[in-house]
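Please think about what follows:
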Amino acid sequence: MTHSNRFRRTIGIAEISALILGTLGLVASELPQPAFAAPAGPYVISSTAMLSGTTITSPWVLDLSSSAHWAIGVNAAGGGVLVRRDTVSGVFTTSPMEADETAATAGTAILGSTQIAFVVSLKTGGARIVVLDTTTRSRVASAALPAAAVGSTAIGSSSQGYLFIVTPGSPTSILKVTVATGLLASALFIPAANSPATSAITRAGSLYVMTATSPTKVVVVKTNPGTTIESTTTLAAIAPSLNAPTFGLNDMWYSTTTTPGRVIGFNTSSKVITADFAGPAGSIGVKALTLDPTRETAWYTTTISGGGVLVNMRLSDGAVLSTTPLPSTVSPHAIFVSEYTVDVLSAVNAHVTRFALISPPDAPTGVAVLERSEGITVSWNPDASSETPVRYAVSVVGNGHIAGCETTATMCDVGGLVNGHQYTVRVRAISLVGFTESAPLSARPARLPDAPSALAATRGNRSIEIRWTPGADGGRPVERFVASANPGNHTCITTANGCTIGGLTNGVHYSITVRAETAMGASPQRSSTETVMPATLPSNPEHLTTWTEGRNRTIVVCAPGDAGGYRDASLRARVVRNGVPGESFRPSTISTIRIGGTKPQSLAIEIRAINAVGESLPLIIPIDTNPVRVNTSRSSQRSLLTSCKRRSMAFEIRP
């Protein structure tokens, strides 16, 4: 097994359970995440004291009906406690035993039931058989045992409702106890030559007892019908003592305390040794032997050069697949193997050191954050590296605020954020063996900005000047304002609170809109209540002609062709005598101006074109006070008067 380099953080068993069960606790200060290369083989991902102050004294009993391992321990006050370890989550729970009960030395699951049994020592001396129901943790039976049962080395069960307790000492006795009552039904003594017993295990109506004799022996006790010694097999090549018996598919497996430690396979049908595998060179003894049927290997601990080592051995040929040093705090009591992890449990404080058999998932990639009002949506690419189911946890931290979400999908929403505030976003890929984390991203939730208000437009020459008051930015700074004039979609873009739209056509009515734009998008449009028409001052009036009829003169003036954007311009005139403005005239058919008896030194008519913007520059027509008599035909006069298609003025100058 190889493991790629990646950022990892070790994770405790309880924390893994919390993560997988959806109860991740997010913290405001993130711990550093060291990078290291996982070794080829198991590597430590956690080391946790599960029951501080409690020491496990009995073997662990696996009850499949409750998906749990069970054991008896002693708390700091010396009282006995029933300990349950969930096989899925790894969580430990306890409940007190009776007040006079303390440690236990043997235990078993009772075949065909939801019950377990332990040989429990009493504070006052002696021993008691205790039968418990795993679903309710209530007592089914409880009874005193003979003094010989104190410190029993093993206990087995049968489908006929009996327990078989293997006592220490020589000669060893097999106590047959009724499950329903806990009362002693019978006793069988193993001859002293085949005693004492070191361990035992039941299977298929037989109890297999290992002895500490030299040479070592396996005594097979038939438990149904009756209790009788069926056979005794001498294992000449095996030095004492055999311990940690466990069953494989066809064989029973034992371990030795010799140097080097050995793992022994024993065929229960032929009563012969089928395997004898030495441990790593220099290893002293084998402890906590546990089979891994899925991988067809065995796990155990040993001591090499004074330090504890976790060993994985292939059962087909005894090849040592891996050796992994144990932390100095580990004093192995049991090993629990799952699909992806191996837990080595020390008796004191029920301290569990968890080893991962596979790598954590790769850190999430393609992480993207979509900001919205008071929240964000986070997405990422699915993990393709992990051999275990992966959950994802998103943490959002910032401004004293902590939020997050968990999912098995590749996207989740996080709400309850404050618009405009900066947050740090991380995505974790979590499996049973740990987690990896993406690089942090920044996010700032926000909403769309409000539309500008107090819109005001001022017309200009081929342009419109627009001013406004900005609205709320929604949590993101306004990047620009866009003002538009239609028809024609004429625009101006600015970061200020006003701009001028040019290139317009005078005399055209334009509707005006303004919007604000941020990184979140555009605000609603703010529209002017009325259209606006660009315009300018009209051009000067046109002097069409002057004609005389006798001593009278007639002057015809026409409004300018360019009325500054309007359809037409009006005219206004006044007489200027010797540079002093005089009477004014409004458009009429013909206005009469008399020179008078005292002729002025200068006489002129000043005419201006007028529109809504203002007045044009004046058209000044000087008047000769001593004109030469010239006659113009009437038809010519009428033609001149009607040639102006716009507003016009006519002045008749008389002596």
Observations:
- The chain has a mean pLDDT of 85.
- The first helix runs from residue 13 to 20.
- The two ends are 125 Å apart (CA to CA).
- The longest strand covers residues 101-109.
